[in-house]
Amino acid sequence: MNKVELLNRITTKIRQSLELQTVLNTAVVEIRAFLKSDRVKIYKFDEDGNGQVIAESIDEDRLPSLLGLHFPAGDIPPQARELFLKAKVRSIVNLEKQQINLSQPDRLPSTATGELTVEEVHQESLNNLLQRPVDPCHVEYLTLMGVKSSLVIPLVAENRLWGLLIAHHRHAKTISNTNVQIIQIVAEQLEMAIAQANLFQTIQQKAQRETLINEISHLLHSPLENEKILPEVLAKIVSALQGTAGLLCMSEGTAQPELSSYQYGSLPQFSQSDWLKLQNLAIAPNKVRAINNLQEHESIQSLLPGLKQNRLSSLLLMSLDYKQELLGSLAIFRREIDTEKLWAGNNHSDPRQLRPRQSFVEWKEIKQGQAHPWQPHELELIDSLGNNLSMAVMQDRLYRQERKQRLLVEMRNQELDNARREAEKASLLKSSFISTSSHELRTPLASILNYLKLLKENFYDNEEELAEYIDVAYGSAENLHDIIDNVLDIGKIEAGKMEVESSIIELEPLLIEQRNLFKPDTIKQNIELIVDCQVTSVYADCLKLKQVLTNLLSNAFKFTHQGEIHLKAIPKTETTSSGEKSLVEISVSDTGIGIEPDRQANIFDAFIQEDASIRRRYGGTGLGLTICKQLVELMGGKILLKSKGRNLGTQIIITLPGVKN
């Protein structure tokens, strides 16, 4: 193969492919064929000075493969790397005889560690540097690998040593200056490919970053709630930054801030105060802080065991803020570097792989437990993502606050509207009550006045007529008294001045007393009042209970034209958190006119009767059931009305505290 063909092949491949690995794989094959070497490899340095063989071509099995092998930085010390940068080419003609191209026989300090420093490499002239022999360690290394001669050409990118192009041969071999120059031109072409790949990678990273930002922005501005959006956003950010886990903490922006957090991946079970310690590490001049080794921070010593248990070693922190207002923080974690890398020669029995295996073990020991550092493009990415996240969180907070204010205004307006309607309803009811009450008051009052006038003027014929006038006047006075009592009672209850004095009451005598009280009504209306008392005593105010029962029975007789009325008392129990509670259930059931289901809800409200026709037909103020309800509740009980509908009767149930035996 001539030099023109070699250059054409390499140049064509560089033009045809943007994939650096494809170009490097082609280059090592073509260079090995051109130099007729046993092995050609490309060795790449990382940020820490460690290296890896990333491309290789071998002539059959004349030398073992080193592809994928990681080497520790000490195998090529810094001064040796600086020498490669300065000398550009280093050719070993015969390793055993220390024949080095362009060197002179005088022994000068080698590039071995301790003999020559990086500063001395910078200060020495190139001629003196080229007179230096290979350091003994390197001689031993190549000898054990079965290499007798080599050619090394540095690959430089952005003014730093990117890697080495290396040709190895099993025998002593001289490479002509012409061929060296050709390989140098090829190396320059490779450097162009590296620069092109770096540029392409930068463009790709930028495009990926913009795509990711667009995806996350689309998510953040979707109509879903933050509780559904933010976990997905956090997962995307952690994956994009090649993290292991992530934590997003946000304050709600209230007078007493509440933290809400979203977690992705496996994190230690820390308390909120522990997480705050980690977040405090973000207090720095820049919004983004990259911590490559958490073990070095004494302020979080108490948290290190938990982080170590999860193998979390590095942290990327960003404070989320908007116009000087802190909204929260974003934390991305990474695990320790995984040193369990695969290398084909690791388990190879070839003795020439012994020294590379030792280097591989040394590299693994160096990397074991090391933190995974953050790169500049990753800091740029999280900065862009964090800004978008901050704006979205702030918009969401403002939206929540505006919605909360709107809801409060709506609630207040609703309350005012309800109050207005209640006031209008109360006004109508009071107007109706005044109208009804005026009639209810005037009727007995007119009757009293008329009969008193008859008595005053002696307009009666005999003693029987006199007694009749007196009885009617007395009955009218009692009716007037009851109406005034109801009005006064409801006023006292609403003013909170009604008092009850509860005690243990023998219930059966009280119910029998009620039966006797309404005996005239049972005879007059031919309606039987049946009393069934299955309870010995009840805990209540005796006078108030009598008032309630009298009112309920009075209504029962008023609205029942035929059939019967039941007054019944039975024991009940209720299960509470403190145990079984004894109750007494007293019910008044009739076979009267009943109440339609849709009118039962408001029947205990003041001034309410089922409809206007009831008031016109039966009279009354509509305060009786209201007073009953208030009195029962004052005694610690409940009252309930049941009716299946018009003409199907009514049952009113009172539940009061019982007395334990």
CATH architectural arrangement of the largest domain: 2-Layer Sandwich
Major sheet attributes: 7 strands, antiparallel
Q: How much helix, percentage-wise, in residues? A: 40-55%
What are the low-pLDDT stretches, counting only 5+ consecutive residues below 50? 101-116
Shape: rod-shaped
- Span between N and C termini? 116 Å
Total domains: 3
Structural class: alpha+beta
What is the overall pLDDT average?
76
Report strand %. 15-25%
Strand order of the largest sheet: 3-2-1-7-6-4-5
Strand tally: 19
Computed CA radius of gyration, to the nearest angstrom: 50 Å
Q: Would you tell me which CATH topology of the largest domain applies?
A: Beta-Lactamase
The helix count comes to 18
Q: Class of the largest domain, according to the CATH hierarchy?
A: Alpha Beta
Overview of the structural elements:
With 661 residues, the protein is of the alpha+beta class. It has helices spanning 3-16, 20-35, 78-87, 118-123, 126-130, 136-144, 177-220, 226-240, 272-280, 304-309, 354-367, 376-456, 463-494, 507-517, 519-525, 542-559, 612-618, 624-634, and strands at residues 39-45, 51-58, 70-71, 90-94, 99-100, 149-157, 160-169, 245-251, 259-264, 288-291, 312-322, 325-335, 503-506, 528-533, 537-540, 564-576, 579-590, 638-642, 650-657. A hairpin with a 4-residue loop joins strand 4 (90-94) and strand 5. Mean pLDDT is 76; it is low at 101-116.
